[in-house]
Amino acid sequence: MTLDPWPAPFASAPVQAKVSLPGSKSLTNRALILAALADGPSLVSGALRSRDTLLMAAALRSLGADIDTTRADWTVTPGPLTADGSIDVGLAGTVMRFVPPMAALASGTVAFDGDEHMRQRPVGEILAALRAIGADVEGDRLPFAVHGTGSVRGGEVTIDASQSSQFVSALLLAAARYDTGLDVRHVGAPVPSLPHIEMTIEMLRDHGVVVDDSVADRWTVAPGPIKAVDRRIEPDLSNAAPFLALAAISGGTVTVRDWPERTTQAGDALRDILTAFGCEVTWSNDGLTVVGPDALRGVDLDLHDVGELAPAVAALAALASSPSRLTGIEHIRKHETDRLSALANELNSVGGKVTELADGLVIEPAPLHGGVWRTYADHRMAHAGVIIGAAVEGIEVENIATTSKTFTDFDQAWSALF
Ligand SMILES: O=C(O)C1=C[C@@H](OP(=O)(O)O)[C@@H](O)[C@H](O)C1
Ligand SMILES: C=C(OP(=O)(O)O)C(=O)O
């Protein structure tokens, strides 16, 4: 039985380890959607098996796909898109946002709901966009319902995606199946997490879909079939953050195996981020290896493109010997929790000196002490907590099980490194 709060392992010596990590959440959930919309069966190898991806598989089954998740390689056999029931999106942004544009193509009604906090996370822009292109959608946030009629007209639509890149990805993923395709424009403050939109576009092109992204803030998808392709999922590079951070804070050496040489995953930015903290970072066929310095130096980073890394980066910054400034991440207030406020609260509660900005955090060096680290049902707040716990004795992480959103048995994988 896992204790709650969970005593985080403390690194009393430099950690030396090589780890293999589970598949990427973002790649797995896109692969499943595209496979369920494709023109034939396909295989998703190395799929992530975690709460977010199992919720996605269940959602797609309720829209008519046959998905076998019993083996390591998942098989997806598309069926006629039908709907009559409800979909639980949990706390998964990718399920709440990527599935409705597909549900609009099904015949029948689907009711969407999820965890309590999910009712606060924004989705209205997608639902309004679906209405604008001919779909029948009831509601502006969870719970909402999509009354599918078997087809969607498609066409031109303008959205404000400044709160989440997932608004754009969601519309693009199903767009080739709309009668006239889709022409999406973004108007508003800059879209965050752009690598995730690049991931969507690259995967659509792998499936033979024609996407034009040559004009900034505009994406057009031509109507046509989505070809079935077998795909191998890369390890989740954002979930690599705490593991590589362990080398950084303990002056150790950690290798994450099978790190792709080239990828659209936002987590690849860890190479530059850890270098900025003073780590030595090298890529080889073996994986990505990080060697921690004697002391971490503070960083000044705009994380707008890679906001999901912010909790781990903030934890590292709190352990650095000089001040750090993390900016460009107002949108992470709309993630699993208000991450800027949660990080400031928890770091300050263990002795940190953290000030919230509207769009970031200023983190100054301060001696940290033990205490309970609250996670706000946020897997990445738990990652931040275990990083602090590895460097500071006596940290107890509340609800470590929340990590199962994107990493089943994270606590065991983490403890094995000490
Ligand atoms: O499309 C995706 O798979 C994701 C996009 C990003 O969302 P935001 O654009 O809301 O930050 C990222 O933070 C999230 O973890 C996953
Ligand atoms: C923002 C995140 O998740 P979601 O896919 O639920 O938006 C995240 O994993 O950091």
Automatic annotation (TrEMBL):
Compartment(s) where it occurs, according to its Swiss-Prot or TrEMBL record: Cytoplasm
Chain sites annotated for binding 3-phosphoshikimate: K25, S26, R30, S164, S165, Q166, S193, E308, H335
Primary location group: cytoplasm
Keywords: Amino-acid biosynthesis, Aromatic amino acid biosynthesis, Cytoplasm, Transferase
E.C. number: 2.5.1.19
Enzyme class: transferase
GO molecular-function terms, A-Z: 3-phosphoshikimate 1-carboxyvinyltransferase activity
InterPro entries xrefs: Enolpyruvate_Tfrase_dom, Enolpyruvate_Tfrase_sf, EPSP_synthase, EPSP_synthase_CS, RNA3'P_cycl/enolpyr_Trfase_a/b
Domain Enolpyruvate transferase: start-end pairs: 12-412
UniProt superkingdom: Bacteria
Catalytic residues identified in the record: E308 (proton acceptor)
An individual GO BP term: chorismate biosynthetic process
Keyword field contains Amino-acid biosynthesis: yes
Annotated phosphoenolpyruvate binding sites: K25, G93, R121, Q166, R339, R380
Listed pathway(s): Metabolic intermediate biosynthesis; chorismate biosynthesis; chorismate from D-erythrose 4-phosphate and phosphoenolpyruvate: step 6/7
Entry GO CC: cytoplasm
Catalytic activity: 3-phosphoshikimate + phosphoenolpyruvate = 5-O-(1-carboxyvinyl)-3-phosphoshikimate + phosphate
One Pfam family this sequence matches: EPSP_synthase
Binding partners and assembly: Monomer.
Assigned protein family: Belongs to the EPSP synthase family.
PANTHER family: AROM/DEHYDROQUINATE SYNTHASE, PENTAFUNCTIONAL AROM POLYPEPTIDE
Known role: Catalyzes the transfer of the enolpyruvyl moiety of phosphoenolpyruvate (PEP) to the 5-hydroxyl of shikimate-3-phosphate (S3P) to produce enolpyruvyl shikimate-3-phosphate and inorganic phosphate.
Protein name: 3-phosphoshikimate 1-carboxyvinyltransferase
